[in-house]
Amino acid sequence: MLPQKLRLGLAIFLIAVITGYHLPMVQADPQPGSCLTILEKPSSGQEAITLLGSNLSIAAEQNSLESYQLTQLLLNNPTFHLDMCGKGFYAESMIVPQMSPLPIENFYLPGSLSTKTTIKTNTVNTNYSSVFKLHSNPGSKKTIYLDFDGEKIENTAWNKNFNGGATWIASGFSQDSDFTTFSNSELEVIQSVWQRVAEDFSSFDVDVTTQLPTLGALERTSAADDMYGTRALISNDTVIFNACKCSGLAYVGVFDSIGNLHDINQPAWIFTQGLGDNPKFIAEAITHEVGHTLGLSHDGSKAVLYFPGINGWAPIMGVGFYQPVTQWSKGEYVDATNVEDDLSIIASHGLSIRNDEDDNSEKTARIMRENQGFGGVITTSGDIDYFSFTPSVSTDFTFAANVATLSPDLDINLTIYPVGKVASKTVFNPPLVISSTDIVDGLSVNASMKLIAGTTYIITIDGAPLSITSSAYTAYGSIGTYKISVYKGKAVVASNTIAAPTDAGTTSLPDKLVLPVQTPKNTAPLELPDTVKVQPRIGSKFLTVI
Description:
Layout: E1 12-16, E2 43-44, H1 45-52, H2 56-62, H3 67-76, E3 80-82, E4 88-93, E5 142-147, E6 151-153, H4 157-162, E7 168-170, H5 184-200, E8 207-209, E9 228-235, H6 241-244, E10 246-251, H7 260-263, E11 268-271, H8 279-293, E12 313-315, E13 325-327, H9 342-348, E14 366-367, E15 373-378, E16 385-389, E17 395-403, E18 412-418, E19 426-428, E20 433-434, E21 440-441, E22 445-451, E23 457-463, E24 480-488
Parallel strand pairs: 1-4, 5-8, 5-9, 9-11, 12-13, 14-16
Antiparallel strand pairs: 1-10, 2-3, 3-4, 6-7, 10-11, 15-24, 16-23, 17-22, 17-24, 18-19, 18-23, 20-21
């Protein structure tokens, strides 16, 4: 089963990890039966314009552009190429993950795999028996499948362009030469990667899963078919990698394509040869590549094609390796060259914003009780979640609102005020302290204040803009999961420290990703079953816990 897609306006994004990438010759038409060959080879710039000649208008139509727009794109963007059928794709060099942080002048120097580790990272326990049963939003009709165990590549555009049309078995993820079993270390990486990618997509109605989807869950057979998705293949396969020397490839805008146009352009590729086995790097690459399948382009600046971020923050469609907070963006940072609205474009390709768990008002506030926890998702910059709490005694209480332990997207803004007296509000949004490329404290809030017995208080949570600079990001991308609880006494940890349990054996996994149960579903989100069904797959690694 190989769902993939090709369509008008097609683009391939090659995230190259070394410079000097040479485009492979296309061996056959990438869209059999409907592709008119108008170029003798993949080309860019003036060369493409010259070779197209009178076929320039055909290529422009293929990419939903006017001829003058295509001409300007080719002349002004050296990373934009046309394939033999005139379909546009991007072939670009990208930063190799390094031991971070790096001086800005060294950001674009290649590195070795041995350096591809972060200095410090949060850790959580792994439920090894359930790693291939992970679901972020079970029951959703949309799926992002994280495929770590390899796949048969057959009848796709990848076959046509990179392997002479021949079928091959692409290997999966491995930290060693053994592709028949997954070690505990490999399972730990897989769970960590899933948690990070699930957080990136937590605001959308989509299930990020490591479990092989049922037949038909990824394919889209017609415009009326609202159950479909994409496969992100995490691989150290050499067939394509040896040609592109890149960390990932993905066709653009194919997530919601129909029929053969969907199937032939799967999967999105993530190559561990270009990333190492660091879960942050792999996760950033997966979200980035899936972002391309959802129609997104790269986020750059006037100085660079891929914006590497600033002060702990980076856009997902730029370079997320070096900053602990990465978010969807609409180009609000200084000198941004891409101001496309990521969230709107993603929604236009099939991933709608998930239903809110409340109605964002005092009247519908969820009632909190002492030592009781709630989970929630801030889905947009306009989403404000309301809670109410009435203490039985007059004393200090602490409201602990914690973001996801790994790669959180949300910076919590917590507000407390007596019901009906919003003018008396107290706002908590601690400063951020960057510990490494993977850890930043201050996104969570532990707020203590004295409450009066019998008085009902309103507690709100929304996304806050980065507090250390006004140029890095607004609240636009400050969305994601959280959990909140209230207990008697003052905070036992500093307010700028993430405090979350790390017992991965619990069914709801509150420290990883807390999603409210959606009506009418009764299944706890992110449930980790105690057992997992082993599914052998021809020529690929299958689950064997050792």
